[in-house]
Structures
1.
Amino acid sequence: MRIFVSIILTVLAGSALAAIPENVEEFTLSNGIPVITRTIDNNDIEGLSLFLIGGSRALTEDIQGLERFALECAMMGSDEYPGPVWRELMDRTQAEWTSSFNYDFSRYHLRCAKDDLAALLLAFGDCLLNPEFSSQAVEQVRESSIQDLQEKYYTPDSWIWLVANDAFMPGHTYRNVPDGIEETVAGFTIDEAKDMLDERIRSGNILITHAGPTGSEELKEMLEEAFADIPEGGQEYEAVEPFQVPFDTVVVQHREIPTAYAVVKFNAPPQGHEDLLPFTAALTVVDDLLWQVLRTDHGLTYAVFSGTTSYQQNWGYMYVSSQQPVQACSLMAGVLVDAIENPMNVDIVRGTIEKSRTLENMRAASKDTQCWMMGSFEISTGDWRNGYTVFDNIEELTPEDLRVVLETWVGNGGWGIIADTTVVPFDQLQPWPLN
């Protein structure tokens, strides 16, 4: 169960413990694409991320998931690198592509050997600009996407987060799901995917980050050759609006399952706000307290945790799965209320801070994390350096600091519950106040 601590703490992690590194450079490609590169020559492995800025703001309810669908189809091959050629290049280089699609941006990350970077970037650029869009590849992407969505729906651990969104963020920009929903993905056409790429693959929508042994001058030449043909321009998006939760809310989904699942979401400081670090540290302490109270003291669950997100607008959350959801949710809310009303144990706070710093050191060696951190903080705060200074004041935090920041930010909660309402009556599943 305690693996969840590492998941929760990733929002705090990802930078070297020292000050801002000196080996980071910034430059701009001829078409306006900004690049941030950190030279790390401890081995011959490269990390490079391309961020497509917009996320949920680039979507509407009717085209949820279209950007992901279009990009995944494009990554099946291009005019110059049709499917078999593209796959042969991947096999020969043993390159690793990973993708993520969140509320603020889409991201493709490449991990490869230094000698293969130039060739892989050329192929990547051609896929973005001249995708093959073979009907077979498109249907393969569609089938895989729908299977993933169906699996998410039938896995309560995954689906409960979207049920909580129904309670916490109805009508909010982030309610447009980047992964899409089955109904939208099933109906996307090739022309719609092409139009989405034409609109989104613009220099003003893109940020590139790099961590690896290739120096900035050599990297710039590679990127110019691969991406210089991307048209200039892009979309201007308004800042993501704060969450408005006027009263405690619960959304219950009935399923005939033996174990109930519950998530509550509540306001948290936005990315870049000075309160985000102490708020996240406080919820990491709450995570330990939840395990002690719900698992150790009452034996109600094998899975309970809390944490904070890392988006332009954030929320805190608590999760529990239990065969006794009413008691579990009541106790979970009580743990948070107690943390708001009473300063936390100083030894627990100090231990949490040390765990945070240890995890940060462990993750600092990952070039994937370095690329994510520089890009994420540049997009959400306007300055990648904030990722390296986020821990500057953590040692100064006191239990009272954590209590006050929770009291300031935690307001009404949006509860999502998946349960068998023939066993747990609906009228018992009412929202539990958090503050």
Note: The chain has a mean pLDDT of 91.
2.
Amino acid sequence: MRVKDCNNTADFRKLARKRLPAPLFHYIDGGSDDEMSLKRNTEAFNNVRLIPDALADLSSMDLSVNVLGQDIDWPVFCSPTGMNRLFHHDGERAVCKAAEKSKTLYSLSTLSNVSIEEIGALTAGAKCFQLYIHKDRGLSYAFIERCKQANFSSLCLTVDTLVAGNRERDLVSGMVIPPKLTLNSLLSFMTHPLWGLNFLTSEKFDMANVSGHVEEGSKKLTSVIDYINKQFDRSITWKDAEQAVQAWGGPFAIKGIMSVEDARRAIDIGASAVMISNHGGRQLDGATAPFDQLPAIVDAVGDKIEVILDGGVRRGTHVLKALAMGAKACMVGRGYLYALAAGGQPGVERALTLLRAEVERDMILMGCSNVKQLNRSKLHFD
């Protein structure tokens, strides 16, 4: 199988599994504990059915939305994901360029392998930075100032990762950063020589945004779980989030919102958007799916704050269901990571192109020429 043979997220997943050593594939693919939330995130979309209209004038289509202060050509954008260099040697650069070509928003993780400054200068596309609050508060607030200088258009604060979820696949596979041969992973790394060659002959692995401030992950081996547990600040409160919103002074989202009460608090502190997310099923297992929570949150705050869905999106129909339920836009993470691992920037470009084509085709089949026409009258609830 080659990138050009991939027609959907499942195909990219299969190709990524072939091309990545097992610890790295399972780091993308896995969730926490029994992975019930991971599975539910996508399965939740099956609880509603789409109701199409016929004989509408579909001679022109408009998929565009304005989200976090930016006009994007279609209602899906790239969720922040860390350490993309593990999956392809071009890492975040490849995803950022692909997002620009797709005319959508790119989100950069605090735990990226490419710096805020380089990504800021790389493309003219809309860019959001995902902020984690470290115990070193000075480091965290320095990120905000760096993003201002690098012309990022928005920020999001992730609030669901005060402690790492129990990601047992990582424990079994021996996943550490930077990657290292272990008894558990030796055979898998040996049977993926092309990945190893690219990793060893490309630039040195580095946690670019925290390099020089935090040794773990760049100079010291650590597991992702240990990094989160050691470096992230568990004492943060809504007051800290409010201070971050004020320090940024522009479009600001709170990522990891799952309750109506927290969505209301996000409004109170001046946030521009909430990203309904359970961290891709990688944190609290047994948590409800973002799509399950979407109607209650939209009904409570949808006229006061942008509501963005993050989690489980694999198909264009998932996007249409989320928008009809009241979401402003959707985010994808695993979907582009599989494609990155499968084929670098061309892989991500193809994955985004295919998903956009699905969204447009499905809108035509729904009898909708504009995303604003999607509402709950287009949904049948089981």
Note: The mean pLDDT is 92.
3.
Amino acid sequence: MTLVLIVIVVALLFEYINGFHDTANAIATVVATKVLTPRQAVWMAASTNLLGAMWGTAVAQTIATGLIDVHLVAVTSEVLICALLGAIVWNLLTWWFGLPSSSSHALIGGLCGAALAAAHNNWHAIIWSLPGKSHWYMGKGLLWKVIVPMISSPVFGFFLAFLLMVLLFVLLRNARPSRVGRFFRHAQIMSAGSMGLMHGTNDAQKTMGIIALALLGATQAGQFDQLPACLGFLRATIPLPGQHVEIPLWIKVVCALTMASGTAVGGWRVIKTLGHKMVKLQPINGFAAETSSALVIFMATHLGIPVSTTHTISAAIMGVGSAKRFSAIRWTVVEQILWAWVLTIPVTAGAAYILVRLLQAAGWMNG
């Protein structure tokens, strides 16, 4: 019981860090273009994150039952703690250096690495690819829910932002610059708000899935058999094979509030990289980048795909910069960001794997 509570606390710590680490995803462009002050932008992002986190559970269900085969490996509290710690360390490290890495992929990498170690290197414990019942895009597993979207979402974000920016250039080529700037200063508030909302829908749900997975594991292990009535809400309903785990309302509320409070702190290091170092932005550029990114994340959330808001908005910013001219992008900064993207899953998976092995060697887990 104590370990389950520790998992919940560590998961909420990850959610809080996710909030201030990924704040830049929603507000970097609106701050860079000086449409809103940093404080105004942060509070707007916190509010929209809170609303978004309460909207749907498709991504949470993917994290809880779509990546790890709970019938082959016991996803114990120790496994989840190791997974979360691996993700938290990577998030703090990349935040310190101002690199917009993916909290989503950090968590997924940690979860897969910890599960693999707990399963004694049985790779079947990770659901690699499982087609859906009706459509190819509804498939489950690491391939369809993580690897393919990890590549496709930034590509979609880049080209959608590029095309939208070109379209705006064509439509507004004869308009007065002052009028265009004034219009998009207002429009960008809406686009930044939609980006914050989409960030909440996708990112907050990942921690919901981890907490639901912890409660499911404890319930399966019989740890909640003697729970008093007042704590009965912790007991999870065990899903049948192929079914999704239920995400209770209290988990949604707690995760939403935690992410919103983390967002309110702000992540100024990452905001500086996305909003200032990569490309010089005007309100029209910020509007195109945020709108494109929000559309991609909306589609992914609808399909239960835990995409990286960091990857999507970064690629969209590259897209709008490239629409001006390719030389407008500071490609040395892009190279640093790409390395962070590539390393996130391997590093967090490796860290979580090592942590589980250390606990096993110390006799604190079944070896």
Note: Residues 2-359 form one domain.
4.
Amino acid sequence: MFQGPQSCRNVEDFRRLAKRRLPAPVFHYIDGAADDEKTYARNTNSFDDCDLVPNVLAGVQDIDMSVTVLGQKLAMPVFCSPTALQRLFHHDGERAVARAAEKFGTMFGVSSLSTVSLAEIAGLTDSPKMFQFYFHKDRGLNSALMAKAKAAQFDVLTLTVDTITGGNRERDLETGFTAPPRMTPSSMLSYAVHLFWTMNFLLRSKFELVELKDFYSEGTKDPITVGGYFSSVLDQTMNWRDAEQLRSEWGGAFCLKGVMSVADARKAVEIGADAIMVSNHGGRQLDGSRAPFDQIAEIADAVGDRIDIILDGGVRRGTHVLKALAAGAKACSGGRLYLYALAAAGQPGVEKALLNIRSEIERDMKLMGVTQISALNRDMLRYR
């Protein structure tokens, strides 16, 4: 029985530790997904339908796992996908993840629903930073978010395109999860039992959606579900013209998160996007949709020579990363991959989670007989 983060060998170990340390509504917000959670499960299970074919006698003492994606050189082919509300999971929130990502030479994604300011995050780390942009009805807010990301010198702007309305996240409805947390008769006992979390939440700096609080009370003063936030304040008229205009206004590396079809990947190329994150929002939006890994090969065949392809979601093991890269992705990203670790132990937890995946990638590359990421190719995969 493991006792702490240093004994956690994999994502599932961190998941169990996070479940012990978080009130039930907060844990199930991280752990849950839409409807019957079939797509959530498929995101990881899809890797099981593909086998790796290793080569041997390749001289693999020295391994280079670095990749260049969105113009940024990363020391490992995995980065921390942007996720919301991080100070609900640990009182350091985005600060912990930013420092851990820098230590491992990889990119850190920051959500529009961040609980630490972009300016503060910029002062914490010099490593590559991605700002994830939600397209709000309030165009003044949209302009303010872009201005703050520019002022903080973020390297990448990523527009999320799969949250045109909130997914049916039934676990959140069952537990009564909101941001900020709202105590209900059914959840009060769980908050009381997890006294360490509750005292941190009550006694440390006030929880708020830092970059949104001056425009909306929802999520800072007025409790709301994340799905409710998407449905009520995001602009459902958003279209390809808006995405193209946003890219032009940003003027730097630009990515679309939530692209799943070849047709949309081609449109992303047409509007001048530098990358796409093939993602279904961790299974939290459209249940029954395809898993990212299931789509990588055909998207790479269609546009892989014209745009960076990032697999986002489902990654739990180093072998998952190698399969995605061999299929045509330039890099992988994940949220739960590090969120369980953040909840379990803050920055040391995130560092251990990144160390685990980096160690697996290094070992698996040697076992595959490759010394550079570029040596991975479709010949090394067999689909069942």
Note: The chain has 15 helices and twelve strands.
